[in-house]
Amino acid sequence: MVSTTANKESPLSKETYDALMQSSTATITTQLMKRGLRNAFLEGLSLSSRRQEKMVGVAFTLRCIPAREDIDVLSVFQDYDHPQRKAVESVGPGSVLVIDARGQTRAASLGHILATRIKERGAAGIVTDGTVRDMSGFEELELPTFSAGASPTTNLAKHHVVDMQLPIGCAEVPVYPGDVMVGDRDGVICIPRHLADEVARDCLEQEVLEEFILERVESGKPLRGTYPPDESTLKDYEEWRKKHKR
Amino acid sequence: MVSTTANKESPLSKETYDALMQSSTATITTQLMKRGLRNAFLEGLSLSSRRQEKMVGVAFTLRCIPAREDIDVLSVFQDYDHPQRKAVESVGPGSVLVIDARGQTRAASLGHILATRIKERGAAGIVTDGTVRDMSGFEELELPTFSAGASPTTNLAKHHVVDMQLPIGCAEVPVYPGDVMVGDRDGVICIPRHLADEVARDCLEQEVLEEFILERVESGKPLRGTYPPDESTLKDYEEWRKKHKR
Amino acid sequence: MVSTTANKESPLSKETYDALMQSSTATITTQLMKRGLRNAFLEGLSLSSRRQEKMVGVAFTLRCIPAREDIDVLSVFQDYDHPQRKAVESVGPGSVLVIDARGQTRAASLGHILATRIKERGAAGIVTDGTVRDMSGFEELELPTFSAGASPTTNLAKHHVVDMQLPIGCAEVPVYPGDVMVGDRDGVICIPRHLADEVARDCLEQEVLEEFILERVESGKPLRGTYPPDESTLKDYEEWRKKHKR
Amino acid sequence: MVSTTANKESPLSKETYDALMQSSTATITTQLMKRGLRNAFLEGLSLSSRRQEKMVGVAFTLRCIPAREDIDVLSVFQDYDHPQRKAVESVGPGSVLVIDARGQTRAASLGHILATRIKERGAAGIVTDGTVRDMSGFEELELPTFSAGASPTTNLAKHHVVDMQLPIGCAEVPVYPGDVMVGDRDGVICIPRHLADEVARDCLEQEVLEEFILERVESGKPLRGTYPPDESTLKDYEEWRKKHKR
Amino acid sequence: MVSTTANKESPLSKETYDALMQSSTATITTQLMKRGLRNAFLEGLSLSSRRQEKMVGVAFTLRCIPAREDIDVLSVFQDYDHPQRKAVESVGPGSVLVIDARGQTRAASLGHILATRIKERGAAGIVTDGTVRDMSGFEELELPTFSAGASPTTNLAKHHVVDMQLPIGCAEVPVYPGDVMVGDRDGVICIPRHLADEVARDCLEQEVLEEFILERVESGKPLRGTYPPDESTLKDYEEWRKKHKR
Amino acid sequence: MVSTTANKESPLSKETYDALMQSSTATITTQLMKRGLRNAFLEGLSLSSRRQEKMVGVAFTLRCIPAREDIDVLSVFQDYDHPQRKAVESVGPGSVLVIDARGQTRAASLGHILATRIKERGAAGIVTDGTVRDMSGFEELELPTFSAGASPTTNLAKHHVVDMQLPIGCAEVPVYPGDVMVGDRDGVICIPRHLADEVARDCLEQEVLEEFILERVESGKPLRGTYPPDESTLKDYEEWRKKHKR
To answer: Given a contact as 3+ CB pairs under 8 Å, which chains touch A?
Structure first.
């Protein structure tokens, strides 16, 4: 049985991090599908930052349940130990804050000030299946943030932050603390932690091969023989790798 | 600040239970709205049982996240301590098992055999914002079950049961362990536990008054003076109560 | 140009009423399509009454906008001239109260007491693209009610009744005061008033012919020659009509 | 590679048919999941017939694309060779007509007269991810029909029947001509044809075992040892089978 | 009781206008929530203009119901007094045209030529919960327009403009003529008119404080003590205000 | 009866192509509505390319049904004659590949390498009611692509490419092989082939007139007399055309 908690707190190796930074979510998704995982994509989330497109980090999870009018009142934010504030101050370097907002978009998961604090703490990104507020601030922030859009409404109107670092669902994908989150223009995916190293390594291989194939296709080659590459094309590929030192 | 955990394990008083059994969810919802709570209704769930329409019980919560193909395989059900099985054997007399299935209807939250065991344990009902399987079995079961419909697919295909007795969202309503779940033909509502006794008492009053008003309207009276009752109608009501010993 | 207001207040002729009571919504929809109208069906609404399945009546419209917390408070119902109460006391014999609830199902459009009053006033039915409360009461009511389901929540939580007898949309179908609403097990349709008499007449013809065709098909006849009827079948039909005095 | 066309026209063996008639869709779905198939359920369809609940038959597929106003006019039904009419006259004994209606519910896939003809031809059922018209007729029909509900609007308003006996999607499940459709109160599933015989056989086994387990649970047994059965329970089961001759 | 019609025609004071131009919708939404209003945000609408991001103006409402094929024909646009044209010529300086399109996106609420006329009349913006056509024209228009996207289809295909300056719902938010509409990158909100002046004043205060807090957080300060500010931070804030003359 | 197959393979005349390249989808949609066609717009698709906004071409159709786990495995892509690959190598110069993906967005219809090959073959564009992968590649591609967004997941996870050049539905619009697809910032529309020439000619006329009207409105003219133009304005228009040689 796969353990889902073993690497909850440990950072990614530099090698794996670097490989994933060079791999598209499309490539990673194919590598996961080879391993029987067809549901790694957090559908419906898009990037708000204009400054940084690529995100790789370790999942730090936060769970929200629906708000209740007598509990979730504005005064709770006076408490520095409110779970939402505590979570923000717990996200560490290299982590991605992943928020289960139940796909509820009518109130924001968080705003620009908290996101700035998260960036200052060295986090690698933010992911929510809800919304963010102060979108113009997020656009300029040097921290990739993926969300289901913008809502100016403060999170208390719809959300009650309840606990952190438990397994959650985000956009109908399971996210266990310690899993690896990767984001780019196609969106966000979640790599189960125990597969991260081998997937990263195989992705690098696939990326180089596809760069070569794309070159070929751009030069007018038909799919037959080229995509997927037959033996003759693979031979050319080996030479191309040597030549380009890839 | 309202405590949301104080009565997690304690049963309802007989008085409150009886009052709620005689009160419609419509009446209870109005009483909650008077107290500022507008979001008590678990929209979209319907009753599967043909045998018993009314449900009153204390929430016992179960949380599911999305399944992952390498973890959620059929063999896990060989384990009697699998969280789903453990939860079934933990629901006690007077409790309602409330399942957070994220509104995911493509696989069932549970089937007829587990539901039968829950009934045998003396539970008061089952609520899920997902689906159930073996619907024909549920129709004959003497245990009110409210769900978003039927799906023959076993829960592992979409769900991973992860923990129990934590606060959850169900159909976008917050449910804290110990809250009071009430169901009838209009659906299911959740009463925050600290309000249950006073709400139950006021509901009984409202139910009797509305029975009287309905009689009047059925006899041809216009709304003016009758609904809401003016002073003269209220006087008649007092006599009616005496006469009918209500 | 077609007038949409000419017959706002006038009742249906007995002939038209009787013909529509004998015609299915399926037949009427085909007759409307012959006249270029493809959008007469109020999709998504179902019948709550167990007592009466067929509804024919003249539209009396009521419009709701979203509620606002500082205006739509429970105390407004103390006012007998509140627009919702006024509308109930304005619906006359033979009318169908048609409510534009914007498809918002999270709070009921009305409850059993008001519906009872509407029945007492001689109305022919109720249609809302929202929900109703006290569903068990509606099931026993001798007044066909079509809605998008049940919600125990009182209408003030989501709705503000704003005006009546203006043209509205209901389930994305235009309804002008005076139009003819027809309901059965397939749902509800709206016939523009100026077409009601001719459509009713042609429907009766079609219903008799289809009864004859169904008999033939039930006796094993293939579609060819029978549905639609060719000349020989039409001849048999004429004899059948004579024989059965249809 | 699995062939998806081999048994397109051949009927089910009596043994397989009988076994599937005794198996619930819940049981079959579990057997398919054991074989790696998690997407066999046509979500969102319900049974309209009150007369017959269980359906087993071989898929005969029909495909609809959206209608176009200048092609899909009422006069096309004058043509007995119109694809919809031709399909109805092609469905044979033991077949289930499966209609790809793209989930479009605003116009019916077919009505009561055509369904009656299909029944007369000996078909085993009708499945559409769209709607049907004349619902009251379908309720009385001795032919199980599963649909996404009722719509009185004739199919031309939204549908153009284009071809038959090609592979289709229905409710986001692939259906190849010759596949086996099974329906009950939980809904409809599709069994790939090459698996039908072995799945049917294993389902029968599972059904008998679950009948025994249910008896045990109803007599108060806890899940531990019973569900799934441990060795001791399995021994009791063997005796129970002998005693009851199952 | 709050009057919803008192200021229907009166313009905003310069002070209130200026304050709202400097306030984000996020800040305004929080101020409204402090006053018990949780439903001010018109979810799902985005800005089409590339030229101007901020919008503040007084609501001028327009209501559409579904189109009917025999009434809503292209020839109606020959009439300069058609309600849509009349509305365009009635929107005055400082107003925002707010269109209730029932969330129907399949046909545009209006196109670039009418929008240009609205701009020429001095309006402050356009808001619809439907779509616009000629999106490339809107992108270059110096008039903030918020919509649910683009559709090339002319409004008659789905919409019938019926009346103006009545209370409407737009994206499930109540909008009364005279209310104040504010838009930015987070979307559009509606401020009930009687609250506009006090909300504007309090927003200005909050904006300055949050600017200071953001500076602190960007300089590495933790949330504790800073957000919300404790006494010591508030003291620093007072000095900062003096220094920066805010 | 209109033939839907006559021009399946023939290219557009240069005159029609040029006219449509100068016509907006808004204008074309109005011309189609004049001819009774209200459903030409493929709602919900947006342009991914930053390089080229306008698309005109002849529909080459591709149909997908839902994937099945035992058939749609990664190894099928080893086959150069896999239907998806064959379709890519069949799309010719001037064609638009139109993919029926049933609106299923959870797996991509195709990726950047195949799209590059399609561009190399001289195609005019790609349209899918599903998603694409490698969005950053599509943004730089000199081939207009319209889709429902991005998904990194390879198409096999949800799609089985089944056949090509059959009539399909795409975004609930019928598309027959040979129809004319036009795209711009408002989205994509489909012109039935037999209407393409006359619609193109009338669009050109309308575009010039609207350019003139827009100039007038920008110069402050009211709608009355200008939009639509009265006789006096039409006279000015004739002079304007002469002067500007339009």
So the answer is: B, E, F
